[in-house]
Amino acid sequence: MMDLYYMLYSAPCRSILMTAEVLGLELNKKKVDLDAGDHLKSDFVKLNPQHTIPTLVDGKFVLWESRAILIYLAEKYDPDEKLYPKDAEDRAVVNQRLFFDLGTLYQSYVYYYYPQLFEVEKKPANPENLKRIDSAFDMFDTLLEGHQFAALDRLTLADVALLATVSTFEISEYNFVKFPNVVRWYENAKSVVPGWDENWAGCLYYKDLYLGDILK
């Protein structure tokens, strides 16, 4: 059984949990409390020098960075191509959406919310960074035009990763109702991606831990 070092409040970790659910993989889940400094303990730093979560251990193989883990799990444990097609062009589209999630959509969350939540001296909301979120959602809305799913005409890794991200925006009370394609996709994804309930439980956990002050 693979070990997953994680915290449920983390969107990248939640994407791994949902992917494992789709693929029928059992994970030995090991909590790494970042606030308590668990990620800086010597045993974990030896395992992952970047001391980040999620971290996956599959036998003697260790991997971190959530999208890399998603791709690894699909390439090794998804022979029926449930989430990750083998066709080069189809796979490239899925990869593009994964990288869009990483570098644009999720990154816009980091720009706007992280200074308010996680810096030693917390900063007020920056309207310019809110525009980054609006722009990212506008692009996602464009990508979804005429499509039920994020990448292809069926569920893929892209939907799972983006669901973890967009649900984090929802729990943070970012209102994306002005992006109708995103709203339509999100409602469908919540109903078809296995593991949604655990994902939402993680969102609520995140809200309880971190969002109280900014959502007053």
Describe this entry's structure for a reader.
The chain is α+β, with helices and mostly antiparallel strands and about 220 residues long. It has 8 helices and 4 strands. It has helices spanning about 10-25, 40-45, 65-75, 90-115, 125-145, 155-170, 180-190, 195-210, and strands at about 1-5, 25-30, 55-60, 60-65. It has a 4-stranded mixed sheet with strand order 2-1-3-4, covered by helices on one side. Helix 1 packs across helix 6 (about 155-170). The N and C termini lie far apart (about 40 Å).
**Helix-strand string:** EHEHEEHHHHHH
Tell me roughly what share of residues is in helical segments: 55-70%
Q: Based on CA inertia axes, which overall geometry fits?
A: globular
Largest sheet: 4 strands, mixed
- Give the strand order, joined by hyphens, for the main sheet: 2-1-3-4
Structural class: alpha+beta
N/C terminus separation: 42 Å
Keywords:
4 strands, four-stranded mixed beta sheet, 216 residues, 56% helix, single chain, alpha+beta
Record the SSE blueprint.
Blueprint: E1 2-6, H1 11-23, E2 27-31, H2 42-47, E3 55-58, E4 61-64, H3 66-77, H4 88-117, H5 127-143, H6 157-171, H7 180-192, H8 196-211
Helix pairs in contact: 1-3, 1-6, 1-8, 4-5, 4-6, 6-8
